[in-house]
Amino acid sequence: MAPTVWIIDDDLVSQFATEYCIRQANSSAIVKSFDKAPESLQTFQECIKQGKGMPQVILLDLVMPEMDGWEFLAEIEKLVGWEDKVSVYIISAFAKSKDRDLAKTHPLVRGYFDKPLSKVSADKIFSSVKV
């Protein structure tokens, strides 16, 4: 079964580069991109309610308008029924060292990677994905 990966990033160029890298690491992966965190949050909530359509991996940018990555994490932290099914990884430029430190210690974050995502990083993500 092919893993489903969600990219949540407001930068379309970054989305493209991330998807390209994912496809290099796992050509059968199903990739869905969101350029707004509120939209992805709504879809995530619907997936939980329906009991289907959940991603195995979320690649989350931190710096976005409307709702940033930290706010997205705070919202999904309130939800139940997904915690052991989805791996959340931060992909960011990490302009602030504070963000890197938070990513290291956040209970929902499985890992963090600098943008642009590399094939080596994507391989690391897929090596731990349960499908």
Automatic annotation (TrEMBL):
| Keyword Phosphoprotein attributed | yes
Give the SMART domains listed for this entry.
REC
Q: Which UniProt keywords apply?
A: Phosphoprotein
Q: Where is the Response regulatory domain?
A: 4-130
PTM annotation (4-aspartylphosphate): residues: 61
Q: Which BP terms does GO give this entry?
A: phosphorelay signal transduction system
- Quote any Pfam family the record assigns: Response_reg
What is this protein identified as? Answer: Response regulator
Name its species.
Maribacter algarum (ex Zhang et al. 2020)
Q: Is this entry keyworded Calcium?
A: no
